[in-house]
Each structure stands twice: as structure tokens, then as C-alpha cells.
Amino acid sequence: MIKRLLIANRGEIAVRIIRTCQEMGIETVVVYSEADKESLPVKMADKSVCIGPAPSSDSYLKMENLISAAVFTHCEAVHPGVGFLSENADFAEMAQEAGLIFIGPDPHVTRMLGDKVQAKRTADEAGLPLIPGSDGAVESVDAAVKLAESMGFPLIVKAASGGGGKGMRIVNSIDELKSAFPIASQEALKNFGDPTLYMEKYMTQPRHVEVQLLADGKDNVIYLGERDCSVQKNHQKLLEESPSTILTDEMRSQIEKASVTLFKNIGYTGAGTIEFLVEKGEFFFMEVNARVQVEHTVTELMTGVDIIRQQILACTTGKMEITQDDVRIEGYALEARINARGAGRITSFVPPLGPSVRVDTHIFPGYMVPPYYDSMIAKVLIQAPDRQQGIKRMVRVLKEMELEGLDTNCEEQIVLLECRPFRSGKFDTALYGQIIKD
């Protein structure tokens, strides 16, 4: 077992990793920008190292600074968390070259999956159904127009690298495509350093369903059930629940088998998620997130498995503590992401309590939410015997939570939870725009 680990991230995911490491007897070193000097991870970790000014381009994305911090503090491994460099194969390779264990898949696996075009080819080889679209990258506007004329509209233009809605445009005509293509390419270059785009048929009423897996790089690939992430704003997830109301038992079984096959085929190590779009009784492969995800906590409530713990064990020892036979998926779990609307100081924060409630956050009274990073400041989760009880519990919990000092999306979350389409389980990714009128 390793003795010391560097967390190359910030915020609630850094807090989450620190807590598991403390239980495992692993010392933690957290990096921080000048804006995060007084943050909770800095207070909780055994050691901390400043890696640069506030902008992430000068701190959390500076690979050399992160590796230097790990070596200087005598760490044996690096955990990338979520976002930032968590799916950057060059960073993983740099860590390995410095004699560090990277808590994630091998760089060649990350490269195979991080490029969405290559990932589709890999998924196709594993037998997963693909969304109709371009056979590889689309190199120019003229090529995009030619393909659109044969495919028809609506279409979606996507960045081959990255995610989170960046470098993504929905188009309904040739004129829209000609305008959107160069904008999406520039956005992809700015956010991911790669302007490459590809195109897919745009599904108008899909559900977004993803499955959580753990793997040891050998034969032990564990399926931990699905999460439904269909409630989104601008492709950013807001509510995540498990199980999904759209999957039949047969579809669930097919997705499980195909997903496990894919991870076995590529020798995946650690925690990973495969995302699908589901529409009209069919499911289609979308992408692989070669890291732990923000919403991994939903699955932890459903299974009782500490995903971060098993991820660390798989990557550092090559062996997890559990197999598929140990997994029990029971009940219902729901997560609401609480996002800040701008920077500001938290003047009061009283997290909600009660049976089967979990709050993952890095904020506290007096904390200054900086303007430089992701807007999510807390994840509020509940567990319940069934969906209807779970929704009622989450509404109660969000109304109970006290958070003052800056505006958040908490009231919007309550509106979404109480709307008829969500309560019925009959909705799709357009729900936010149908219910919340900006």
C-alpha cells in the first residue's frame, strides 16, 4: 500500500479523496492556487503546496508544477480527481516517467478513449451500438456540408476531445452548420487544445444514461449499475438518479454485458463510466469518461461501495477488495448539484440532515467562492426505498438547507423535482428548457 498521495485537484472532489485516504491510512498532499489558499482541502490535507496564480491555466493545468509538487513532497501516487487533467494522457505519462503511480487507466487507454472519434471505433469493435454519424473526424466545413446532405438534419457537431458541452453545436440547416462549425472548432481548441470535430445525428428526445464500472486492468471488471443524468442545462448535469426509469430489465442486461466487454477488451484500470443515449427503446454508445465522475456518489449510495477506495487499490496494488458477486444494487438514490451564480463569500451555511442524507462540499461559513473555477459548490444526495419517497425527501432536504452570501440554483432544483414530467419519470434531456424559463 502506498503511504502518500498527491491530489491534483481542488474543491469537493479533493475533500472526497482526502476522506477516503484518511480511512486507508494514506497521507495526502493537496495542491492549491493562490485563490484557494484558505480552502477546506488545504485545511484537511497533511501537506499542501501552492502551484501558481488563480487562473487554472497558471495552476491546476500546469503539469510540470503538479509533478514537481508530488516529487518534492515524496508522494508515491497522483490522483487527478475530475476535470482539469483527469483525462489527460500526457499528464498520466509524465507522472509515470517521474516514478509516480497515476490513479487512472494507462495513458494508451486514456488516449484510446479520450479522443471521441477513436472511442467510437473502440466501442464498435466491442459490439456497442453507435449513434449514426461521421466515420471519423470531419476535417472541414465543406466535408461537414457534404456529410449533412447525406445524413439529414438535425445534427450535432462535437469536439473530438473533452466534453461538458464545450465545442458542441446543434444545427438544423446547412447555413447553421456553416456558421457553427468554425465556432465549435475554435471553442474545442481553446478548451481542449484540439480543434478536431465529428458529427452525429441529433436525437430530439433522448435520455442520458451512464453506467459505473470498476476494473483492475485484468479480468475483474465490476458493473455497479446505471445513473440517469437526463436533467441538464446547456449539457451540464443538474440532477442524477439511480435507477433510471427508461431502462427495461432487458436493456439493462444488454448495457451491462456490452460495457463489461469493452473494459475487458481494452484492459481498463480504475473507475470509469460509459455514457449512452436512450431513445425509442434503443441505446447508443456516446463516450467513455476515463476517470471518476462527479456523480459517482449516487452509485456509492446504491451499492455501499467506496468507489474512490477501490479505484486507488486497483491502480496501486492491481487488486480490488470486491468482485461482481459482492455487489448489491438496492433502493433509489438522487443527487442535486448546487451551483453558485457568481463569486461571493458564504455568510451562513447549514447543511441539511436527516435519514439517508449525504452532502459533499468544500464550502463553509466565511469561505470566499472564487470566480475562476467550476460553479458547483455542493452535492446534496438522498437515499430512499423508492423513487417517489426519494423525490419527496430531496425536496424536504433542499428546503431545509441554509446557504447565504451568494445566489444559487437551489430553488430551480426544487421546481424541477416538483414538476409533473420529472415526478412521472417521463421526460428527456429537454426538461430544463421546458420547465425553467430564463
Would you mind describing this structure in some detail?
The model has no long low-confidence stretch (mean pLDDT 95). The protein has three domains: 4-103, 3-Layer(aba) Sandwich (Rossmann fold); 132-201, Dna Ligase, domain 1 (2-Layer Sandwich); 207-435, ATP-grasp fold, B domain (D-amino Acid Aminotransferase, Chain A, domain 1), CATH 3.30.470.20. Helix 2 (40-44) links the parallel strand 2 and strand 3 (47-52). 36% of the residues lie in helices and 26% in strands. Strands 13-12-9-10-11-14-19-17 form an eight-stranded antiparallel β-sheet, with helices on both faces. A five-stranded parallel β-sheet has the order 3-2-1-4-5, sandwiched between helices. The chain is built from 15 helices and 20 strands. With 438 residues, it is of the alpha+beta class.
Layout of helices and strands:
Elements: E1 4-7, H1 11-24, E2 27-33, H2 40-44, E3 47-52, H3 63-72, E4 77-79, H4 89-97, E5 101-102, H5 107-114, H6 116-125, H7 141-151, E6 155-159, E7 169-171, H8 174-192, E8 197-201, E9 207-216, E10 221-233, E11 236-242, H9 249-266, E12 269-279, E13 282-289, H10 296-303, H11 307-317, E14 332-339, E15 344-345, E16 348-350, E17 357-361, E18 368-369, E19 376-384, H12 387-400, E20 402-404, H13 410-418, H14 420-424, H15 431-435
Parallel strand pairs: 1-2, 1-4, 2-3, 4-5
Antiparallel strand pairs: 6-7, 6-8, 9-10, 9-12, 10-11, 11-14, 12-13, 14-19, 15-18, 16-20, 17-19
Helix pairs in contact: 4-5, 5-6, 7-8, 12-13
